[in-house]
Design goal:
Distance between the termini: 32 Å
Order of helices and strands: HHHEEEHEHEHEHHHHEHEH
CATH class of one domain: Alpha Beta
Number of strands: 8
CATH topology of one domain: Rossmann fold
Largest sheet: 8 strands, mixed
Structural class: alpha/beta
Number of helices: 12
Length: about 325
């Protein structure tokens, strides 16, 4: 994100902005923070897998759902964008099992930051084999969806519209930032968006705290305490809540949806300790450590796919005896 601008030059500009124009600096860096860019190149194996997945996407039914810009809350906590035109679109792909019956249920796949739906397609075959319909969505500003920027309320807005048109949903399998979106959807945590009823939730390498992410970004670019607070305060008009409230453990408590956390202890991007904290949220949340799979390899591992699809389709708790390959 910042690397392409030249980190040291950018940090110098932020240092000056902290002193001379903290409000402008907070707003400018927040816009940058919300602009996804390709932050890393894929490995040869990941590239080959993604190419195969994108070929499979061509066999799916590509659909777009329109949603309004927003939300944007005033000081009284009222969403001012209810009447805004639906001029943004969310791209999603529909995979149907060979035989659709009255018992066919829908599972939604949500990728992470700078990802795309193709990264989640390892789950499609096993889910179809269990007679699930699968929707793989490109989050706003990713893949085939419109928009140039993304933040958590915008994603919830778009996915809530998708649920209205394609629900009910049986479950969600999500990765990284997509898991934060799933937690908000399942809990109805953002005012003006109803809770999405779910029977199962699988969170892979999920962040435990939005504040942790924001403050990590602030430290990386050199925001001082005053500018960081101004930066954090930009969340409330968008989400109707303060940044500090966006703790995944709180949302899981509110949702009470049976939830499986899949996380690698060696994850260097999202700490495993956060998953341990979330696992204490309530008795319906279980953690399955998958050692050696990092933050992104975990998506493609057979152990992850077995555990996730088994939990989604089973009425029991965490599948036992699952280890990383």
């Amino acid at each position: 994100m910042v690397k392409s601008l030249g980190l040291k030059a950018f940090q110098t500009a932020v240092w000056i902005g902290n002193i001379l124009a903290p409000t402008l600096t907070a707003k400018t860096t927040f816009k940058l923070f919300c602009t996804p860019t390709r932050s890393r190149s894929l490995s040869q194996k990941e590239t080959a897998m993604t190419q195969r997945a994108e070929q499979r996407l061509s066999a799916a039914r590509a659909m777009d759902v329109a949603y309004r810009k927003g939300p944007y809350f005033d000081d009284a906590g009222h969403d001012q964008t209810h009447d805004a035109p639906k001029d943004e679109t969310l791209r999603y792909y529909v995979f149907e099992p060979e035989t659709v019956t009255a018992d066919t249920k829908t599972v939604v796949l949500l990728h992470g930051w700078t990802g795309k739906s193709a990264f989640m397609l390892g789950f499609v075959g096993p889910l179809l084999a269990k007679n699930f319909r699968v929707l793989a969505a490109d989050l706003p500003a990713h893949g085939g969806s419109s928009a140039r920027q993304l933040h958590l309320p915008k994603a919830v807005n778009a996915l809530s519209e998708l649920h209205q048109q394609t629900g009910p949903w049986h479950g969600i399998i999500s990765h990284s930032f997509g898991s934060a979106v799933a937690c908000v959807l399942a809990s109805g945590f953002i005012p003006s968006f109803a809770k999405v009823p779910l029977q199962r939730l699988v969170l892979i390498a999920a962040p435990h705290s939005m504040q942790w992410i924001f403050h990590g970004f602030g430290r990386a670019i050199g925001l001082n305490g005053r500018t960081q607070k101004l930066f954090d305060d930009l969340v409330r008009p968008l989400a109707g809540r303060a940044l500090a409230e966006f703790e995944s453990a709180n949302m899981l408590q509110q949702s009470a949806v049976p939830t499986l956390l899949l996380h690698a202890p060696d994850d260097k991007e999202v700490p495993f300790s956060g998953a341990e904290f979330m696992a204490d949220a309530n008795e319906t949340v279980s953690l399955l450590p998958l050692p050696g799979l990092g933050h992104r390899r975990i998506l493609y591992a057979a152990a992850t796919i077995r555990a996730a699809t088994g939990f989604i389709s089973d009425t029991a708790n965490v599948p036992s005896g699952v280890t990383a390959d």
